[in-house]
Amino acid sequence: MEQQNILNRSTIKNEKNLLSLSVEKLDEYINLLKDFQQKSEVEAKFVEADLAQKKIEQLIKIKNKRKLLDAKTQQVEQKDDLERSQKEELDEFNKEMDKKFYELNEKFQDMQSKLEEEHNNQLKELQQKFEEKYNGYTVKPSPELINLNKKLELYVQKKDYQNAHQTQIDIANLTKKEKEKFEKEKYKNIKKEIENLQKKQQNESKVLEQKIQSSYNSFKKQRALKALELLLKYKNQFRDLENKHTNEINDLQKVVQGGMLKQGKKKNYSEVVRNKNMHK
Predict the structure, then answer these.
(1) Which of 25, 42, 60, 189 is most buried when burial is the number of CB atoms within 10 A of its CB?
(2) Residue 136 region, left (φ>0) first, then alpha (ψ -120 to 50), else beta?
(3) What is d(CA 249, CA 254) in angstroms, rounded to the nearest whole number?
(4) Residue 9: its pLDDT value, please?
(5) 242-275 CB burial, b ≥16 within 10 A, e <16
(6) Nearest residue to 19 (alpha-carbon basis) of 64, 56, 53
(7) HSE (CB half, 13 Å, CA atoms) of 190?
(8) Is the pLDDT of residue 138 over 80?
(9) 172 vs 270, which has greater pLDDT?
């Protein structure tokens, strides 16, 4: 009953409706029509068999068009999936690289802080060393100052107060002069040691800075190379997918433009009906 009604279904009479059907549904109709065609042929109902055969041809053409449309839709989805996969992998890659860069930056900041703290401690230790060395330090009198003090004693003993006073002034001036000289030498020595320490610290800071910069450059280079590898991977995948899609569409278009797939030898029912009528 279903085979007899297949030709009268409104669904398969309208090509627009047929194009909305799935390939599986079209195959179902084609198989029903093939059974109907074979049954009609056995029952010598050649007009019905011819109608069924023509409808089969139409459905096969529509099925091929449906395959082409489905393939195009599927290809768009595949391309969207690949683009989504690329974005997700790039996002994950950048997230991972940003995390590594943050950790690297934290490590270097910690190294710089520790070095700065070490340098500050070295300066404090040097200042403490100077304080311990010069705290309560008495300037050793020069031979000239010792002689003046001896002269002062002699003048005092001789009650020669005038020369004693003058010698006293000379002692004060020489003492001041020698103290100033000592302070100058002390400042010079302190300054030299501080400069030597600062120079050493600057070299250490420079070495660390160079090490940090080298690590940053190496990290950036590795990140760029890995990013390039990732981009090339997807570039190749997009190229392969495009080639695959082009071949698929070309093959399907050839089928659509060429008409039916091979269905075997077409039976000429019209000739059979004409010959049958002539022999009546």
Answers:
(1) 60
(2) left
(3) 8
(4) 60
(5) eeebeebeeebeebbeeeeeeeeeeeebeebbee
(6) 64
(7) 18
(8) no
(9) 172
From the list 261, 262, 273, the residue with the least C-alpha distance to 64 is: 261
Q: Which two tokens mark 231?
A: 């981009």
**Pairwise CA distance, residues 64 & 221, whole Å:** 51
Question: Which residues, other chains included, contact 149 with Cβ-Cβ below 8 Å and sequence gap of 6+?
Answer: 141, 171
Close Cβ partners of 187 (under 8 Å, ≥ 6 residues apart): none
Spatial separation of the C-alpha atoms in residues 12 and 57, rounded to whole Å: 12
Place of tokens 């997807």: 234
Question: In this predicted model, what pLDDT tens digit does every residue of 56-105 receive, in sequence order?
Answer: 998 998 899 889 999 999 999 999 999 999 999 999 999 999 999 999 99
Distances (CA, A) of 228 to 74, 83, 84, 144, 201: 29, 16, 18, 82, 40
> Rounded CA gap, 209 and 197, in Å?
18
Q: Which amino acid is at 115?
A: L
How many CB atoms are closer than 10 A to CB 13? 12
Provide CB contacts within 8 A for 58, sequence distance 6+: 15, 18
The C-alpha torsion from 59 through 62 and 68 to 70, rounded to 10°, is -80
Instruction: State the Cα–Cα distance between residues 178 and 279, nearest whole angstrom.
Output: 154
